[in-house]
Automatic annotation (TrEMBL):
<feature type="domain" description="Flavoprotein">
    <location>
        <begin position="5"/>
        <end position="116"/>
    </location>
</feature>
<dbReference type="InterPro" id="IPR036551">
    <property type="entry name" value="Flavin_trans-like"/>
</dbReference>
<keyword id="KW-0812">Transmembrane</keyword>
<dbReference type="Pfam" id="PF02441">
    <property type="entry name" value="Flavoprotein"/>
</dbReference>
<protein>
    <submittedName>
        <fullName>Flavoprotein</fullName>
    </submittedName>
</protein>
<keyword id="KW-1133">Transmembrane helix</keyword>
<keyword id="KW-0472">Membrane</keyword>
<feature type="transmembrane region" description="Helical">
    <location>
        <begin position="191"/>
        <end position="210"/>
    </location>
</feature>
<dbReference type="InterPro" id="IPR003382">
    <property type="entry name" value="Flavoprotein"/>
</dbReference>
<dbReference type="GO" id="GO:0003824">
    <property type="term" value="F:catalytic activity"/>
</dbReference>
């Protein structure tokens, strides 16, 4: 079985300076990863060279940069900004990464989003609606609860922020992949049964006759 292909979309939030930690955890799982950077991530100083060296692949910043896996097994968006989450919920595709994410949701590609936001952002009812909208479309948005990040209003002026919980994204990704594997195995088992084989054979015959 080929290695899992992960597309990591890096947004312009503070924790991106430590994104190599996330990549290390992903690679430790034996997964392949290619990074895609939003324009704001590039603007605020993402170390593209370090990410390229760590992953062994080019960092995608435009359609001109080739992607190894056009259809990845899973997409991880981390750190995700309020702007990225909002645009994805509204299907605004004004940048290449936004277009890729919008298409991925439509194609039902598993997606895990680890946001980097402050508690004040959750005071907007419209943002909470966006979160629920994405979850309704099957996006795993790690916000609140026992397995999600808890926003804070703290700032570096009051001391250092706690380490960004990259491990939450990795754990959620593993869960997504396992669920997908179980789903595939379950449906494959149906076709392995006598009735399943009959149904599959009948479908193939119909398709062949239709083409004639």
């Amino acid at each position: 079985m080929p290695p899992v292909e992960v597309l990591l979309v890096i947004c312009g939030a503070g924790p991106l300076k430590d994104v190599t930690e996330l990549i290390s955890q992903v690679l430790a799982r034996g997964w392949n990863v290619q990074a895609m950077a939003t324009p704001s991530a590039v603007d605020i100083g993402l170390d593209i060279g370090a990410v390229r060296e760590q992953t062994g692949r080019l960092v995608v910043t435009s359609p001109a940069v080739p992607r190894i896996a056009i259809t990845p097994d899973v997409i991880v968006v981390a750190p995700a900004t309020v702007n990225t989450i909002t645009k994805l919920a509204l299907d605004i595709r004004d940048t290449y990464p936004a277009t890729v994410l919008g298409q991925a949701v439509a194609a039902c590609i598993p997606m895990v989003i680890l946001p980097s936001i402050k508690k004040v952002d959750l005071d907007r009812a419209i943002f909470r609606m966006h979160v629920q909208s994405l979850r309704g479309e099957g996006v795993h948005l790690l916000l609140g609860g026992s397995n999600g990040i808890h926003p804070t209003n703290d700032s570096t002026k009051n001391g250092p922020l706690p380490p960004f919980p990259w491990h939450l994204a990795v754990s959620a990704t593993a869960t997504c992949l396992e669920a997908r594997k179980s789903y595939a195995s379950k449906h494959l088992a149906k076709f392995a049964s006598p009735w399943g084989l009959i149904a599959l054979t009948t479908a193939i015959i119909i398709i062949i006759r239709f083409k004639k």
